[in-house]
Amino acid sequence: MEIVPFDPVTLILISVFNPVVIAVAFLMGRRADQWQKLIVAAFAASLAGYVLYWVVAAVGLMPVHALGGEAAILMMQFLLGLVWAALGYRLAPQTRG
């Protein structure tokens, strides 16, 4: 499967199915003791997800030729990370004080 340059559907799929974004955001959301920390969790998850995307492309597991829209990937991963962090925050045991 070759990724075509700036395909919005591909950008969304990369963001939605990135397992690092899901794991980092959910786990950091569970550990957050204030709702404001969910923004930090989403940002960290977005950056971690982009690092995974970059490593996979650099190693050659996924052929990437001038994808374009890297900022869109970060923004989509941030928004989805915020959703996952909020879910983790909501499902965490209620031991916050």
What does this structure look like?
The N and C termini lie far apart (50 Å). This protein has 97 residues and is mostly helical. Keywords: Membrane, Transmembrane, Transmembrane helix.
Secondary-structure blueprint of this entry?
Elements: H1 8-16, H2 19-31, H3 37-59, H4 70-91
Helix pairs in contact: 1-4, 2-3, 2-4, 3-4
Based on CA inertia axes, which overall geometry fits?
elongated
Q: Please tally the β strands and state the result.
A: 0
Radius of gyration: 15 Å
Note the run of SSEs as H and E. HHHH
Structural class: mainly alpha
Distance between the termini: 50 Å
Q: How big a fraction of the residues is strand?
A: under 5%
| Number of H- or I-type helical stretches | 4
Helicity level: 55-70%
Number of discrete domains: 1
Pick out the low-confidence regions: none
Descriptive terms for the model:
elongated; about 70% helix; transmembrane helix; 4 helices; mainly alpha; about 100 residues; about 0% strand
Give a quick rundown of the structure.
The protein is mainly α. Helix content is 69%, strand content 0%.
